[in-house]
Amino acid sequence: MKEFFLAQFINIWQNTGAGGITCNIKGPCDFCDAVVVASNIVKFLFQVSIPIAVIMMVYGAIILMFAAGSEERFATGKKIITSAVIGLSIALVAWVIIGTLLHVLTGNPDYPWASITCS
């Protein structure tokens, strides 16, 4: 039962041939379906990275507020915030690069940019 709810939350098969694990309605899965699945996975990972980065920034800020003059605690909080911002920046750049690469591979430079459709 747990797998069912997880599969509904993380629907990587969205916008493929049959909208499910098998593409039997339209025919066998093709290259474009694989690219759509890859795009869905990248979108999910990017959506997960944003709340994680925000939580880490808040955690770093709390450490900074309660440093109470301790240089070590201040440096730790600052390092956590800096790492969270760098990690979020890397995730954003990776999302843009992978999205562009997937559009080039499918020959589908149409907009909206963040969605790939199979023809």
Salient structural properties:
single chain, 119 residues, mainly alpha, 3 helices, 66% helix, 0% strand
Describe the structure.
By secondary structure, the protein is an all-alpha fold. The protein has a domain at 30-106. Helices cover 66% and strands 0% of the residues. It has helices at residues 2-9, 31-65, 71-106. Helix 2 (31-65) runs antiparallel to helix 3 (71-106). It is elongated, with a radius of gyration of 20 Å.
Task: Describe the structure in brief.
The protein has 119 residues and is mainly alpha-helical.
Oligomer: single chain
Helix content: 55-70%
Overall average residue pLDDT? 80
The arrangement of helices and strands along the chain is HHH
Q: Specify the number of helices.
A: 3
Number of strands: 0
**What are the segments in which pLDDT stays under 50 over at least 5 consecutive residues?**
none
SSE class: mainly alpha
| Rg value | 20 Å
What is the terminal-to-terminal distance?
34 Å
- Approximate strand percentage: under 5%
The geometry reads as elongated
Give the biggest beta sheet: none
SSE layout:
Blueprint: H1 2-9, H2 31-65, H3 71-106
Helix pairs in contact: 2-3
